[in-house]
Amino acid sequence: MLRKEQNDLLTQTGPATPMGDMFRCYWIPALLAEELPANDCPPVRIKLLSERLLAFRDSEGRYGLIDEFCAHRGVSLWFGRNEKGGLRCPYHGWKYDHTGQCIEVPSEPKESGFCNKIKLKSYPLIKIGDILWTYMGPADKEPPHPEWEFALVPPEQTFTSKRWQESNWLQAMEGGIDSSHVSFLHSGSLNSDPLFKGARGNKYNMADSKPFFEVTDNEGGLFIGARRNAEEGHYYWRVTPWVMPSFTMVPPRGNHPVHGHFWIPIDDENCWAWSFDYHPVRALTPEERQAMLDGKGIHVTYVPGTFRPAANKDNDYLMDREAQRLGVTYSGVEGIAMQDASLQESMGPIVDRTKENLVSTDNGIIMARHRLLKAVRAFKDKGITPPGVDPAHHRVRSAAVVLPVDQSYIDAAAEALTVIEGKAPASV
Amino acid sequence: MQLGLSESARATTAEEARFRIGYPNSRPRKSRIIALDSDSVAALKSLVDQASDGAHFLRYIEPKGATNSLKMLSVDAILEDIDGKRTNLVDEIADADVIVMVTSAGASAEAAEVIGNACFVRSKMTTGLVLNSASVPSEQLKRTLTTMRPFAAMLVVSTGAEYVSEMLSALRV
Ligand code: FES
Ligand SMILES: [Fe+2]
């Protein structure tokens, strides 16, 4: 349970809210690089942290993320002409460069310098991996670039998708650290999904549906360990890292690619669910890449031309009661991502956490909220940089390991939980 | 209400969320929060006032009826409440919904073993909260964890004592 004021604090992320300002301490994923595939390609409308923005790539390949609306009379620059080093408003021809600086006002004499006075709000937009990242905080506080492993490995080793989720970011993110739902909601997928099946660890999963948990805090966030019985004298551990504010990684299975998420507020009632899949030491196979494109694993298929999942609230998520009854899918919804999203959206746009009844196994969620509340207060009252800004906090991995019963994953798997370039993930 | 939307689309709007009535959906919980060492007793003392009536704060004193000769683990223990009144573990946990053991990293693990075992044989699950600090060698933390692990469905290692109250309020204790 959270009190109302705590819930408001964590779920409100617009400009000048404490949590919104805290999100603006981080480099966050803004667009897939493929959304701006070429110089002078069409601009893209994007809303982040309750702010309407426009992304474009100019004639020289420079990326810009600027206020969506023309400073003249407020036209959306989505209609703009992306030409000759800038974006020109089609209404009266004002032109802006990738920093939002106005570089031409055709009605004014060039010599007047009028256009120098006009500048749209803009944010840096940089490409790392398959993602265009932005930092929306004060320019003098810009942190070093992100160092998430999935974005730094060679392109053939990684795949990223995003989908629109119609709920507040926090209830989506909490699904990523809610390890106890996996034995139920996703139980149908373990042996059927091409990106999951066949791992030795799966048999421990199936044999023991009541895992015990161990939550450990660290500088950047948390580790959430779920343990099940393995062979005599051993436990099978699945360890999920959470890095503040909203990065989570799923423990690996066999030699499958490893996956994880970011949950980024669009506004308070919508968020982007980013889903990545990568292998630290090998290229993804053509079959794996195809499966990801086909919406398997944690990815989805889309309403064509959008990032809205094909199964969505407008078609009742293609609910299949027969599949539910037969246990093909536990909830009747197909696919891991939409199994999660359908339930999280069903809570309503912003879930009322004053009504929930958490139990002991929800301590991962309780601790994450606690860390967020603590960080947002420290940031707001004392200006303390929140955990997760430092790229050192990005260099984590998830792990699946079998350990003797007297070993703590936090010690025994310390290396496995850290990014070591060229080292295969710890997985069974 | 907008027409033409699917049931799910209509049901998940903010307007519809207003129709979730705040009926109580849980009866008050009974919880036992047991400090296993003196550091955690101190951490609990400050919480007593904020907690609900269903919460008892206790400290571990010693095992009871330990059958040392049989080399068997004790299944009961003597506890003491905040006012210094002694009680039996067995009586305390009989109708408890939530049992939380609080200890600090490196503290003697005997208490955890006794309480964990006593709860385990009665099919009561415990939550273990280990207050960690940077000054405690990881070997000592490991010892505490290893003892508690078999008996705690949830083990939380937290740096800083303020998590105790946060967790208890989240669990409606
Ligand atoms: S059982 Fe967890 S939300 Fe219903
Ligand atoms: Fe899930």
UniProtKB/TrEMBL annotation, chain A:
<dbReference type="GO" id="GO:0051537">
    <property type="term" value="F:2 iron, 2 sulfur cluster binding"/>
</dbReference>
<keyword id="KW-0223">Dioxygenase</keyword>
<dbReference type="Pfam" id="PF19301">
    <property type="entry name" value="LigXa_C"/>
</dbReference>
<dbReference type="Pfam" id="PF00355">
    <property type="entry name" value="Rieske"/>
</dbReference>
<dbReference type="InterPro" id="IPR017941">
    <property type="entry name" value="Rieske_2Fe-2S"/>
</dbReference>
<protein>
    <submittedName>
        <fullName>Phenylpropionate dioxygenase-like ring-hydroxylating dioxygenase large terminal subunit</fullName>
    </submittedName>
</protein>
<keyword id="KW-0408">Iron</keyword>
<dbReference type="InterPro" id="IPR050584">
    <property type="entry name" value="Cholesterol_7-desaturase"/>
</dbReference>
<dbReference type="GO" id="GO:0046872">
    <property type="term" value="F:metal ion binding"/>
</dbReference>
<dbReference type="InterPro" id="IPR036922">
    <property type="entry name" value="Rieske_2Fe-2S_sf"/>
</dbReference>
<keyword id="KW-0001">2Fe-2S</keyword>
<feature type="domain" description="Rieske">
    <location>
        <begin position="27"/>
        <end position="134"/>
    </location>
</feature>
<keyword id="KW-0479">Metal-binding</keyword>
<dbReference type="GO" id="GO:0051213">
    <property type="term" value="F:dioxygenase activity"/>
</dbReference>
<keyword id="KW-0411">Iron-sulfur</keyword>
<keyword id="KW-0560">Oxidoreductase</keyword>
<dbReference type="InterPro" id="IPR045623">
    <property type="entry name" value="LigXa_C"/>
</dbReference>
From TrEMBL, chain B:
<protein>
    <submittedName>
        <fullName>Uncharacterized protein</fullName>
    </submittedName>
</protein>
